[in-house]
């Protein structure tokens, strides 16, 4: 990969990670989580209580 490149993959299906240390001074990461409409976890789509508890948890982190 080159600076500015991006990749989208299903981490549960593909082994992933760095093979060498990151040579850049910084990097940005975006994590997307979803459930497939007719998949095994479809009943958890828009799981409001779980979302609220996670929002409470991360709001208490010191950055």
Describe the structure.
- With 63 residues, this protein is mainly alpha-helical.
- Helix content is 19%, strand content 0%.
- The protein is built from one helix and no strands.
- It is flat.
- The mean pLDDT is 83.
Annotation keywords:
63 residues, mainly alpha, 1 helix, 0% strand, flat
Give unreliable regions as ranges.
none
- The fraction of residues in strands falls at under 5%
Global Rg: 16 Å
Characterize the main sheet.
none
The coarse overall form would be flat
Would you tell me the overall average pLDDT? 83
Number of strands: 0
Number of helices: 1
Query: SSE order, as H and E?
Result: H
How many angstroms does the end-to-end distance come to?
A: 29 Å
Helix/strand-derived category reads mainly alpha
Helix fraction, binned, reads 10-25%
Q: Could you give a short description of this structure?
A:
By secondary structure, this protein is mainly α.
What is this structure's SSE topology?
Layout: H1 48-59
């Amino acid at each position: 990969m080159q600076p500015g490149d991006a990749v989208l993959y299903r981490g549960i299906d593909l082994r992933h990670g760095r093979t060498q240390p990151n040579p850049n001074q910084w990097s940005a990461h975006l994590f997307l989580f979803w459930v497939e409409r007719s998949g095994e976890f479809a009943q958890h789509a828009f799981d409001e209580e779980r979302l609220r508890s996670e929002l409470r948890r991360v709001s208490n982190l010191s950055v």
